[in-house]
Amino acid sequence: MRKFFLSMLAAMIAGVSVNAADEAEVKLPPKDKFFIFVLAGQSNMAGRGIVEDADKKPDANVLMLTKDGKWVPAVDPVHFDKKEAGVGLCRTFAAAVAAKNPGVVIGLVPTACGGSPISTWTPGGYHDQTKSNPYDDSIKRAKLAMEAGTLKAILWHQGEGDCGKAASAVYEARLTELIGRFRTELNAPNVPVIIGQLGQFKPWGEYVKAVNQAQINVSEKVPNCAFVKSDGLTCNKDNIHFDAASQKEFGKRYAEAYFKLTEKAK
């Protein structure tokens, strides 16, 4: 865990991107200076933006937890749920939080699973597309991260997988229950939960509107939750996923929501 900063500094001075997979674990800061953020949901949290060279350059104040549980510099793609993983909102979010908290290092914990309905975010829930247990895996990874740092928030973006008649009708109850389980299992009863709005790339049908309203309701009814609007954000050619520029803007909006929640809590 102590073989990192000199090599990364040299790389940054030279303007060379650092491949996180090739780096040794980093030396971590004290627990109270290591802010942990859990990234949960489906593909638009995992990120599907096109990765460019700038997205591969590390920020010394932002780390990520790899699939095998190591802390390394956070470069895109941060997630590993599918081979399509790309630029998400988390690095821009982390940079904004770090900038407002001098001396703090941000630890990102990727747990989102592309295509996962909220029904798989339950104890024992299985998601076939990613061959994973979204909720169980998220809890395990969050607890591992919390051994080194302090949990500060859970970032959630999901809902596309529940825009059907039956699923949308119970979405509010399921999301409320999920937030409660996260807080209970992580022993963090007041941890902020930030919910991102679905993409507005095409006209919404009845059930998309129902999921959207459910998310707004949860953000208003459940303490210490926030809802982040996706107004004006644009998509990849697939008309499903936020493009890289919009993901970066979304990250800034998540950060503003986090700042408002934490200021309110003081």
What's the short version?
This protein is of the alpha/beta class and 266 residues long.
Explain the overall architecture:
The protein has 266 residues and is α/β, with parallel strands linked by helices. It has a single domain (29-265), classed as 3-Layer(aba) Sandwich (Rossmann fold). Helices cover 36% and strands 14% of the residues. It has helices at 5-14, 43-46, 90-100, 134-146, 165-169, 171-185, 206-221, 244-265, and strands spanning 34-41, 62-65, 71-73, 105-110, 150-157, 193-196, 225-228. Strands 3-2-4-1-5-6-7 form a seven-stranded mixed β-sheet, sandwiched between helices. A hairpin with a 5-residue loop joins strand 2 and strand 3 (71-73). Helix 3 (90-100) crosses helix 8 and helix 6 packs parallel to helix 7 (206-221).
Distance between the termini: 34 Å
State the fourth-level CATH superfamily.
Answer: SGNH hydrolase
Helical element count?
8
Strand content is: 5-15%
According to CATH, what is the class?
Alpha Beta
Structural class: alpha/beta
Radius of gyration: 17 Å
Q: Strands of the biggest beta sheet: in what spatial order?
A: 3-2-4-1-5-6-7
Sequence stretches where pLDDT stays below 50 over 5 or more residues: 1-22
Shape, principal axes of CA atoms:
globular
CATH architectural type:
3-Layer(aba) Sandwich
Helical percentage = 25-40%
Order of helices and strands: HEHEEHEHEHHEHEH
Question: What is the arithmetic mean of pLDDT?
Answer: 92
Main β-sheet: number of strands, strand sense, barrel status? 7 strands, mixed
What number of domains? 1
Total beta-strand segments: 7
